[in-house]
Design goal:
Elements: E1 2-3, E2 7-8, H1 11-19, E3 23-28, E4 31-45, E5 50-57, H2 60-63, H3 78-81
Antiparallel strand pairs: 1-5, 2-5, 3-4, 4-5
Length: 83
């Protein structure tokens, strides 16, 4: 387990990610870089409502279904990730 980066989200999203052990999907250059499961909320950063989470990475096999191209930074595509 390790600390995630600084994720911009509201408190309601933060609480839901923790309650449901939700996934955080990081991208680099438009491609999914890593998928991690939220374990715990650690800290709020007041700048742009950012949050820091304690996460555990998914295995390579578990992450494979999320390895897609994301067209723009911070794109929210629940229809893609809920399939």
């Amino acid at each position: 387990m390790y600390y995630s980066g600084f994720w911009k989200c509201d408190d309601e999203i933060r609480d839901r990610l923790v309650e449901e052990n939700g996934l955080i999907i990081s991208t680099c250059g438009g491609y999914v870089h890593q998928v991690a499961r939220v374990v715990e909320w650690m800290e709020n950063i007041h700048y742009q409502r950012r949050k820091v989470f304690l996460v555990e990475p998914l295995s390579e096999a578990e992450s494979a279904k999320f390895m897609i191209r994301v067209d723009k930074q911070a794109q929210q595509t629940p229809d893609v990730f809920n399939r």
